[in-house]
Amino acid sequence: MYKPKREIQNEAEFVFIDDLVPQDHLLRKVDKYIDFSFIGEKVRPFYSENNGRPSDPIQLFKMMFIGYFYGIRSERQLEREIQTNVAYRWFLGLKLNDPVPHHSTISWNRRTRFKDTNIFQEIFDEIVFKAINHKMVGGRVLFSDSTHLKANANKHKFSRVEVEVETREYVVDLNKAIEEDRRDHGKKPLKEKEEVTEKKEIRLSTTDPECGFMSRENKQEMFCYLDHRTTDMKFNIITDAYVTPGNVHDSVPYLSRLDRQVERFGFKVEAVALDS
Length: 276
Prior knowledge:
9 helices; globular; Transposase_InsH_N; Transposase
């Protein structure tokens, strides 16, 4: 029986990943206006040139940015999403057949290499500076609020511990101002009151001791974190993000975070907006 010969393709087909990403894609805009090369310089002190496997810290941080942009909270899921998403690969400089960095690499760097460092804050600040240079941040009117983020901790697994109630920073500053004013006017210092330490009992998660238990009226009881954020009015750019346990009141870190922005970015704040 006659069998036809299989047709041989002489011309190779080429697919360019750049052609597959829409021109109006968010990641194209980010890539156009933000030069991420500064990350390499900032993390250089945390890498050894002679030991360990080579890695691309800029790529790792850009992976975390993708997770933030698109609400992918699991590093394992982030790896899977990048594997199949052409735009993500393009943003990271990966070809269609390049392997995606393992999710454990992100986790190890975040939890080990960069633990107890200020590197994430430094990178955040640098991007805020870039937004300021692009005249996207005015620094005149700031909005602040906070959001509870559920911790990966069972609310029924906890121990009860007694802790001291944290004194509000503004109360300390107010007392200091009163003493300075009395001294400037030739008045005697106020008699020192006997210090009374207020204590309270809290629930401490046995799964994640760093989170805090939230129990409020009309709110779900849970172990969580509190994400405090400040946004500039001009183009709604986030200028500060700070995380505390979920049982820390919004007012506790507020003034110090505001002062930090004024000092760090040179903001000339005229007004702030807060909720109740």
